[in-house]
Amino acid sequence: MERPHLVIFTRYPRMGTGKKRLAHEIGPVEALRFQRVILTGTVRRLVDDKRWTTWLAVTPDRSGPWPSTCRIIPQGNGDLGERLSRLVARLPTGPVLILGSDVPNVTRTLVSRAFHLLQGHDAVIGPAMDGGYWAVGLRRRPRKTTPFTSVRWSSPHALDDTLRNLQGLSVASLPRLVDVDDASSLAQCPQWSLLHGLRNG
């Protein structure tokens, strides 16, 4: 069996970049703290599992330092769909699962379940509460599929657009999770007690 690839799609945590909605509502310092904590926690939970190879797909391309426990691959230029398509094409053979770095409840069990589903399906999707998705996985055989064209990113239509691109293929679903983009979605993650000072706007 070809070795699976887990890709954590992330932006380097830096003041004033990324998580703009969250920063606007809770302040840039707390938003930066959330970025750092969630990325560190996600890597620690998932990186040392021997069932898959873990990559960080990073932007900016020349940024860091990044955790030495992960393989680093730059996202490159273009919109989100172009960057995702390029990533899928560049990785070594084997099934790929791409997830965001702002999903507090992602676990090894969920990642393992996704790769198990890809043994019998062309793709797997983890829906998010906001109409997007927190994870997308592709088996990439017998043919490579890149379902990221004409997707209305950062909108309630992102999931439906991607599923439309996967019509005719076998698609499995993962549980619906919270993808933190703003104070409202952060409030749905009470386990992040270290962020207890945040207040919903």
Task: Write a structural description.
This protein is of the alpha/beta class and 201 residues long. The chain has a single domain (5-195), classed as Spore Coat Polysaccharide Biosynthesis Protein SpsA, Chain A (Alpha-Beta Complex), CATH 3.90.550. It has helices spanning 20-26, 28-46, 80-90, 108-117, 158-165, 183-186, and strands spanning 5-11, 53-59, 71-74, 96-100, 123-127, 133-138, 171-173. It has a 7-stranded mixed sheet with strand order 3-2-1-4-6-5-7, sandwiched between helices. A hairpin with a 5-residue loop joins β5 (123-127) and β6. α1 packs across α2. It is globular and about 45 Å long.
Describe this protein with a few key phrases.
201 residues, alpha/beta, Spore Coat Polysaccharide Biosynthesis Protein SpsA, Chain A, seven-stranded mixed β-sheet, 7 strands, disordered C terminus
List the helices and strands and how they pair.
Elements lengths: L4 E7 L8 H7 L1 H19 L6 E7 L11 E4 L5 H11 L5 E5 L7 H10 L5 E5 L5 E6 L19 H8 L5 E3 L9 H4 L15
Parallel strand pairs: 1-2, 1-4, 2-3, 5-7
Antiparallel strand pairs: 4-6, 5-6
Put the structure in a nutshell.
The chain has 201 residues and is of the alpha/beta class.
Specify the CATH class. Alpha Beta
The poorly predicted ranges are 193-201
Pairing-aware structural class of the strands and helices? alpha/beta
Tally of helical segments: 6
